[in-house]
Amino acid sequence: MSLTVDITHPLAGFDLNVAFEAPEGVTALFGRSGAGKTTVINAVSGLLKPQQGRILLGGETLFDAKARVNLPIHRRRLGYVFQDGRLFPHMSVRQNMMYGRRFAPRGASGPGLEEVADLLGLTAMLDRRPGALSGGEKQRVAIGRALLSWPRMLLMDEPLAALDAARKEEILPYLERLRDRAGLPILYVSHSMAEVARLATSVVVLEAGQVVRSGPAEQVLSDPALVHQIGLREAGALLPATVARHHDDGLTELSVSGGRLFLPHLDMAPGSHTRVRILAQDVMLALEPPNGISALNILRGEIVTLREGSGPGAIVQLQSGEDKLLSRITRRSAQALHLSPGQRIYAVIKSVAIARGDIGAG
Amino acid sequence: MSLTVDITHPLAGFDLNVAFEAPEGVTALFGRSGAGKTTVINAVSGLLKPQQGRILLGGETLFDAKARVNLPIHRRRLGYVFQDGRLFPHMSVRQNMMYGRRFAPRGASGPGLEEVADLLGLTAMLDRRPGALSGGEKQRVAIGRALLSWPRMLLMDEPLAALDAARKEEILPYLERLRDRAGLPILYVSHSMAEVARLATSVVVLEAGQVVRSGPAEQVLSDPALVHQIGLREAGALLPATVARHHDDGLTELSVSGGRLFLPHLDMAPGSHTRVRILAQDVMLALEPPNGISALNILRGEIVTLREGSGPGAIVQLQSGEDKLLSRITRRSAQALHLSPGQRIYAVIKSVAIARGDIGAG
Amino acid sequence: GTTTVFAAASLKNAMDEIAADYKAETGNEILPSYAGSSKLARQIQQGAPAQIFISANPGWMDTLEKDGLLVDGTRVDLLLNSIVLIAGPGASADLSVKIGPDTDLATLLGDGRLAMALVDAVPAGIYGKAALSSLGLWDSVEPKVAQADNVRAALRLVGSGEAPMGIVYATDAAADPQVRVLDTFPADSHPAIVYPAAILKDGDSDQTRAVFAYLTSDAARAVFKAHGFGIAGE
Amino acid sequence: MTDWLGPAEWQAVALSLKVSLWAIGLSLPIGILAAYALARWDFPGKQLLNGIIHLPLILPPVVTGYLLLLSFGRRGPVGSFLYEWFGLIFAFRWTGAALAASIMAFPLMVRSIRLAVESVDPKLEQAAATLGAPRLWVFFTVTLPLILPGVIAGAILGFAKAMGEFGATITFVSNIPGQTQTLPSAIYTFLQVPGGETQAMRLVLVSVTVAMGALAISEILARRAAKRVSGA
Amino acid sequence: MTDWLGPAEWQAVALSLKVSLWAIGLSLPIGILAAYALARWDFPGKQLLNGIIHLPLILPPVVTGYLLLLSFGRRGPVGSFLYEWFGLIFAFRWTGAALAASIMAFPLMVRSIRLAVESVDPKLEQAAATLGAPRLWVFFTVTLPLILPGVIAGAILGFAKAMGEFGATITFVSNIPGQTQTLPSAIYTFLQVPGGETQAMRLVLVSVTVAMGALAISEILARRAAKRVSGA
Ligand SMILES: Nc1ncnc2c1ncn2[C@@H]1O[C@H](COP(=O)(O)OP(=O)(O)OP(=O)(O)O)[C@@H](O)[C@H]1O
Ligand SMILES: Nc1ncnc2c1ncn2[C@@H]1O[C@H](COP(=O)(O)OP(=O)(O)OP(=O)(O)O)[C@@H](O)[C@H]1O
Ligand code: MOO
Ligand SMILES: [Mg+2]
Ligand SMILES: [Mg+2]
């Protein structure tokens, strides 16, 4: 089921003018505050009626300005996790979470209350009212409410922003499983590149109401041109990988097109496909394979481009096997190593720098 | 001006029982969702009257249950950035931001509207009403409103959660300057360790209403025992540093007790003090100083402790000069290098891994 | 100068005309205030700035007299009225009723109602009840009585066809083309219907006395008569 | 107590309660609908509807009673229609008193409820819709519980008004003991005759007691509802 | 138009407007205070105050008027006190009509405003306090603007009621043309005499027109206020 969005709508500072295709999986909407992300999601959900354009979901027309089609909100069945919570104040947490269940069509299936409450750490507060919950607790109830309505698609507007890292670590894999198991498409807004990189199959970058880049996550995220859009610290490459085998000392060996990577144990069967994210700043370059160093992961590559920034940094794009890697180093290092395009080079990656959070089961 | 909090208050799931001292500078309240952070801030602001205990600010009693002192909220003059916005819907952005100004006492001073609006990117929307702002825009207005009331202290409850990385990068240095220039104490709640590490002079870790650890940021953050509280990916050490000199190629040389570090240009005069954060996962260990590698920063040290986790990872704490560094490596590497306490070792740090965002002017 | 006259509401048409005449004649103004007699009497008890009171109910005038609020010797019975049985627009044209002890009013009403003013409170109702009682009709008619809060409301119930018959003042019936007078109650079937008038103690002055005198003048009497009232003592 | 009030007076008390409760009970749903429509919908004639609803407040009650008589009376267009099709009779019946009371109370009810509807955040209703709930379901599970304090306030205002209504009632359905003689009619009757004050004040006391009881109950209900709405 | 209504009738129209506007203008601040107190404060006798405010709604207007006459009349305890100390006279003056109207309108105003106060999120007022604003300032800059739709609704309900009030007014201040004869009194008087219906209906029309105009204005004001409050 894929989502097609092609809409125009006037906003206060600019016109929203957005066209993109969201294939199965997670599509991340990425962009600065005020870029128009929430507005796009509102249009998809039916809360906002765009001035022009159309929105299709899996072949069904949700909205078409010309044909005057505008499917009522409640018939769209899209689970929306709002940026601003919107819990029902007069209902208990349990009632909030179960509100949408009765509207799931016969034959639909999805997670149960216990499972979701447990995942979200809400089991102890099912009978409380939202008014006396903490900010993060509210946000978790909102996530649970959307999940439990067994929607056709999830619209999530910064769903994890108010949550601590540990809780995020629990929820993210769950979302991944949902995405994979139920084939549930997700439109996902987040300012956290880590979340986006981990979840997204495809990325749409918005700027002042316009799509400036969209495509598969691997391509968009390893595009050196977008480094400044994404933020220096968050730039990095996504590499498809296959689980090769599990070692006795708890490491898992992955094969990528450019070689092998060792990671802390992954709970995946050998042969399964996944992908890893390697931040540009976690990649050091060496002219020769270094010895006596704690980094386990060293990939051989060739320099494709060398972009010097305005500051003292430089972004190096490497071809390693069929994949492209990004490395962010200082100009001084670039000069010391006499780096130039075409040069053979070793990328030194700390194994632990490829954190669990950056491995998507995609 | 320091803040003393020592209060007890019953909550839904547990009793809040918190005592800590917040010295000048930024005190970060850190803890999982529902740990009681907002409740503590509410008590300091006067919105919540604790059942027991007392709260002092710079020698003045804000609250004392026994002495029946409870300074009215509006006389506390604490700029509170709420987790849930709370903008005045009937006022323009400008009116919202200037609301507290008239109550600043004669002789008080602080930033002006233009300066703050510019910093927060709100200049174009000063005449709009909050209802039609995006989530992040609202949050920025809330920050501006608190700043412009020229408070004696700032209470900030996840102020940057809804903002993109680039905007955060603009606001954080400003908060640092406020902290340093006006000596404005800040009580700061955040789930982002990067923010905490950058801003905090002192850290209070809450768990289920109890203080589990508190003290200077350097100590708390480099405590290997707290790695799991803080999150594996966020663990790291804070090192005091002095700006040594600026190099022509745009790098700035810092001296730390264990040696020299090279960073992208810092806008600070030679001789000024700062501190840098080095994430455990950004530190590789090498038996010999490596050559031909893009990492510029190599510190010599000695292994203090070696903690193997439940997984395949290990946390190594190093003594380097007078500072302690953390390194997170795989057990396999630890074995391959035959690491043991007391051993001489080289910490290889990618210069860019010490990101700008982790340099506080503290 | 102006003279405030508190007058029972049913006197409005006549009093308005008299006030206009008086002004034309003397240049002085009569300011009438109309309301139910009970209200006016209570207001007078509380010091209302009225000079003359014309009540539809001797009882209230008695009360004021007892309270010493009247100028001694000024109370006169000013007007007379009678009560009539009326039928509404729904009644057949050849319906005719002669009121007497044998009139089977209850049967005539069928399942309809007999509209009256409040039979224990409002003068027209009190007189009507007295008349029906003395004729021996009350017990049979009582369950069919619909009591309105004043005569006009009772008249309206009949006029709108809501109630087939009603008991109202002759003055009211005469002015409403919707209703037809079936018969007048014999004068001896109920206490005399008199409208007493008096000068109030707080308002005694030459001017008041002049107005009061005008009210009993032939000119005023002619107007009252034209509106269907009888003149006491005539 | 039974000695203190005569049987006719007890009848009046009972009748007033019956009339007021029916008046509010039946007009409340319509009031909620009208309030919702005025608060949320745009339709032609909206201002007219708003005006008509307020009429009984603006007009002296006697006029309202008179207009009721003209339209809902046996010969009135509405009255004869209702009689022919549903066998409903208002004239001289307690049902007419209830109709008059409900019409007089209607503007008070609608205003309260409308204010409550206007203060419900449509975002919550939207959230319910995104979860698949059709409009009517949203109304009953989200809107209605949230406006409950307003509904209760409106109902109690209406009830109080219905208990005190007199002018329109007596004009429309007159004063027939046991059928249409409500407490206010009885009080009025006593006030018309010299010396009736004491009896009237006794009934006033009864009326005040009943209404204060209702008021107290409504306060408790409203507080409970408001507490739920605040979500704590 | 001047031909259509006689001078006495114009007088009644003007007087009704004057009485209603004064009644609302003067009682609105007190109404806001009372509503705020009932919504937000806890104090002994709160339920009693609430009950007293509702009394004029519960009692037949005649009774209210009678009680006013007894207490605010020249010989009444309050009336004589006010006269001696302040030279204020209510009895049989238009001021008395305004007093009666405001007392009859008071419960309607208070209910509306109270509902509005209850729907203001105290968190906003708290936010204002953290910015240094003392209570009164918070009230005038945050609470009051946010309850404005409720205040307008209350004022218009009250105004409509004041325009239509009759029973208490005529009982308290009588029906003296040019002084205390308001529109409803004039209408009532016409309805009391044979053939007065047409004239009464003409006045009803005037009364309806005035009130509808006020209603329309209030709707516009309330919509504007509500739009501000919604923050868009
Ligand atoms: N009014 C209240 N009454 C009772 N319990 C409350 C109340 N408000 C909050 N709590 C509970 O107290 C605990 C602490 O809440 P608090 O809002 O301080 O958490 P927090 O640390 O700010 O969390 P978050 O990061 O999710 O905002 C939570 O479990 C919450 O459910
Ligand atoms: N109702 C509205 N009318 C006009 N402009 C609006 C309206 N709502 C939002 N805007 C403006 O449209 C722009 C996009 O808003 P939107 O809420 O989609 O941003 P966003 O990308 O979700 O931002 P954030 O990350 O801060 O939530 C913003 O500049 C906002 O001020
Ligand atoms: O208004 Mo009267 O006193 O019933 O004639
Ligand atoms: Mg948004
Ligand atoms: Mg919180």
Automatic annotation (TrEMBL), chains A, B:
<feature type="domain" description="Mop">
    <location>
        <begin position="292"/>
        <end position="358"/>
    </location>
</feature>
<dbReference type="InterPro" id="IPR003439">
    <property type="entry name" value="ABC_transporter-like_ATP-bd"/>
</dbReference>
<dbReference type="GO" id="GO:0016020">
    <property type="term" value="C:membrane"/>
</dbReference>
<feature type="domain" description="ABC transporter">
    <location>
        <begin position="2"/>
        <end position="233"/>
    </location>
</feature>
<dbReference type="InterPro" id="IPR004606">
    <property type="entry name" value="Mop_domain"/>
</dbReference>
<dbReference type="GO" id="GO:0015098">
    <property type="term" value="F:molybdate ion transmembrane transporter activity"/>
</dbReference>
<dbReference type="InterPro" id="IPR027417">
    <property type="entry name" value="P-loop_NTPase"/>
</dbReference>
<keyword id="KW-0500">Molybdenum</keyword>
<dbReference type="InterPro" id="IPR008995">
    <property type="entry name" value="Mo/tungstate-bd_C_term_dom"/>
</dbReference>
<keyword id="KW-0067">ATP-binding</keyword>
<keyword id="KW-1278">Translocase</keyword>
<dbReference type="InterPro" id="IPR005116">
    <property type="entry name" value="Transp-assoc_OB_typ1"/>
</dbReference>
<dbReference type="Pfam" id="PF03459">
    <property type="entry name" value="TOBE"/>
</dbReference>
<protein>
    <submittedName>
        <fullName>Molybdenum import ATP-binding protein ModC</fullName>
    </submittedName>
</protein>
<dbReference type="Pfam" id="PF00005">
    <property type="entry name" value="ABC_tran"/>
</dbReference>
<keyword id="KW-0472">Membrane</keyword>
<dbReference type="InterPro" id="IPR011868">
    <property type="entry name" value="ModC_ABC_ATP-bd"/>
</dbReference>
<keyword id="KW-0547">Nucleotide-binding</keyword>
<dbReference type="InterPro" id="IPR003593">
    <property type="entry name" value="AAA+_ATPase"/>
</dbReference>
<keyword id="KW-0813">Transport</keyword>
<keyword id="KW-0997">Cell inner membrane</keyword>
<dbReference type="InterPro" id="IPR050334">
    <property type="entry name" value="Molybdenum_import_ModC"/>
</dbReference>
TrEMBL record, chains D, E:
<keyword id="KW-1133">Transmembrane helix</keyword>
<keyword id="KW-0813">Transport</keyword>
<keyword id="KW-0472">Membrane</keyword>
<feature type="transmembrane region" description="Helical">
    <location>
        <begin position="136"/>
        <end position="160"/>
    </location>
</feature>
<dbReference type="Pfam" id="PF00528">
    <property type="entry name" value="BPD_transp_1"/>
</dbReference>
<dbReference type="InterPro" id="IPR035906">
    <property type="entry name" value="MetI-like_sf"/>
</dbReference>
<comment type="similarity">
    <text>Belongs to the binding-protein-dependent transport system permease family. CysTW subfamily.</text>
</comment>
<keyword id="KW-0997">Cell inner membrane</keyword>
<protein>
    <recommendedName>
        <fullName>Molybdenum transport system permease</fullName>
    </recommendedName>
</protein>
<dbReference type="InterPro" id="IPR000515">
    <property type="entry name" value="MetI-like"/>
</dbReference>
<keyword id="KW-1003">Cell membrane</keyword>
<feature type="domain" description="ABC transmembrane type-1">
    <location>
        <begin position="13"/>
        <end position="216"/>
    </location>
</feature>
<feature type="transmembrane region" description="Helical">
    <location>
        <begin position="200"/>
        <end position="222"/>
    </location>
</feature>
<keyword id="KW-0500">Molybdenum</keyword>
<dbReference type="GO" id="GO:0015098">
    <property type="term" value="F:molybdate ion transmembrane transporter activity"/>
</dbReference>
<comment type="function">
    <text>Part of the binding-protein-dependent transport system for molybdenum; probably responsible for the translocation of the substrate across the membrane.</text>
</comment>
<dbReference type="GO" id="GO:0005886">
    <property type="term" value="C:plasma membrane"/>
</dbReference>
<feature type="transmembrane region" description="Helical">
    <location>
        <begin position="20"/>
        <end position="39"/>
    </location>
</feature>
<feature type="transmembrane region" description="Helical">
    <location>
        <begin position="51"/>
        <end position="73"/>
    </location>
</feature>
<keyword id="KW-0812">Transmembrane</keyword>
<dbReference type="InterPro" id="IPR011867">
    <property type="entry name" value="ModB_ABC"/>
</dbReference>
<feature type="transmembrane region" description="Helical">
    <location>
        <begin position="85"/>
        <end position="106"/>
    </location>
</feature>
